[in-house]
Protein 1
Amino acid sequence: MSLWAGVACRKLAAGVIEEVSMAGVNRISYMEVVWRITEELRNAEKLEEALRSSLESVVRALGAEAGTIWFYNKNGDRRIYPSFWIGSADLSGFSLAPGEGIAGAVVESGETTVVRDCQKDRRWAGRFDAATGFVTRSMICVPLANKYETIGCIQIINKKDGSLFEAEDVSLCENLSMLAAIAIDAKDLILGIQEQKPVVVSLRDIKKEFVNGENVTQVLKGINLDVYEGEFLVLLGESGCGKSTLLNIIGGMDHPSSGSFYFEGRDYSQADDKALTAYRRRHIGFIFQSYNLMPNLTARENLEFVAELCVDPLNPRKALEMVGLAERAGYYPSQMSGGQQQRVSIARALVKKPRLILADEPTAALDYATSVEVLSVMERIVGHGATLIMVTHNEEITKMANRIIRLRNGVVSDVFINKHPAKAAELVW
């Protein structure tokens, strides 16, 4: 780090130690967070990942519901964009003008702001809550400034226990802001602005419960999410968190119990079976973990069967060429390896010329080498403009995605934009 950074860190250490003697045991944990962030940012090979991880550490330490790092696009359209955020509100596609909202006001003024009741604050841009289904109650907003100017802000929202933010909470956020600015300067990080693309799928307050006698299990508890044209989006989370249920709703294979599900502006949340069948047939391509190929049909015949159901299908031979299996057109599933069968299932999805491809654990039954082979095919498909939503347990695969949505206990717990997706061949597990 630079000499300026070293001096700043020494000043930080002195200030934190002094505060520990005054504030007691709770402050010690804050000091540990500060030093962990210091090391992570200083030694980071990928600074964007370290910034996101540091934000997450502060959100957890404060017991907050959400946190965002906003950056000011000074040399572009002069708007403020969320680059990293933790919490259930999906801010993809949002931006602020300087002075707009509390974050915009902090970037404009360069002053830390603590708001006790955002809903009554005249500066609050309530359209974010309206669009995401999130309720913002209280907030810390700290300017993110380098040696010369304010380059953004850090925003921490709502304590989970309902209490208000205190002075030591503000101090922790200011420490994060200073360390982040030092790291950004030291590593010459230039944060690009997310390209604005049309919304293909829009989910608002989606809930899903299953009833078994007197027992009711709520799997999805209010999902708000937009899916953008041409993106590779991964749904990540532990078993039972609602990933496959959400994928089934997006794919028109199940109805939500409540909420709205829009595809290209049309609400399908309460569509009848006929409308959902037409939706699946015209717009959705499915890739399953178990391949689901018809064993008594060849690869080409499996694709031709689907093509007969479509209005304007892709030529089956062309689809097999796209996945590198033109020479296996006459083979039956039993004559192909697991990876080849999965590539046939990808080709089957492509035959429909779908607007949206849904993949549920497509590599779970495959070994590493075969998984990379299959992921490379999917990589090429997305590169040609397809929109892909994949459910996976494999954290390594998320490195390929443009955006990662982590589900926890039926809600969105984390949204991460990956500005530098990895190639399939770069993955290791």
Note: The mean pLDDT is 86.
Protein 2
Amino acid sequence: MPMANLSRRALLCSAAAVAATPILRAAGSGLKIGVTDWNLRLGANPDAVPLAASLGFDGVQVSFGRKIVDNRMPLDSPEVIDRYLQLSAHHRMPLDGTCVDMLHTNGLKSDPLAEKWVVDAIRLSGMLHTDVLLLPFFGKWAIQTPAERDAVADRVRELAPAAEKAGVILGLENTISAEDNVRIMDRARSTNVRVYYDVGNSTNAGFDAVKEIRWLGKDRICQIHLKDNPAYMGEGKINFVEVMRAIRDIGFNGYANLETDTHKDSTVAADMRRNLEFIRKL
């Protein structure tokens, strides 16, 4: 509508609506702040989409779930996929990535079932129009030795062609160093294998997250998790001013998803808003 045709009342109403919005979503091609559905306590649940939208996030990372029925993950259903896509379009809330959380049960390090879940997750990621799939390596499936690191790289190399064909990036999230992750990437021999960098995991493992982010650079990082659990962001041991400066300086402009806990005396909405507001101010 041309500006000349807008009444003063309409302008005032528009300004009031903007002022009433507690947190605005990021615009343009800069860093975008999303959220994990499991930290919204809505893992593998389409209701995470409208909740993320209402809280002001730029995207939501979707987990595929672990309650296997008929040898399928919970999201492996045309009806559920359609529901995600409908809600995403309705709320203008991108599905910014996925996570094959069945790897917490059947780890890619050595469990034969893991490859099936990853292949299925690649297919489902394509159906959801997402291009980053997180592969977690934690607990008894954590990578602990050079031999295990090489075994993981070999298995990822076998899966990489399917990811390349689907246009999906396999993101490695673990507790090993940036250098060891790049060793996996090099051995996997695919540009579709990258690091899913988690500042909390790396800090807790004794690594300097700021130095690692700068060393990896934007082309070896597919996405980022931001957290300093159990503390609120900015009140724990991680210097997020320097973390965000490093992310900016390397030119990373993808998604950084909050993976922050909810305190027992608070609510998901309140704590997510608090952490999101803090990171947006930086």
Note: The beta strands are 32-36, 59-63, 95-99, 132-136, 169-173, 193-198, 221-226, 255-258.
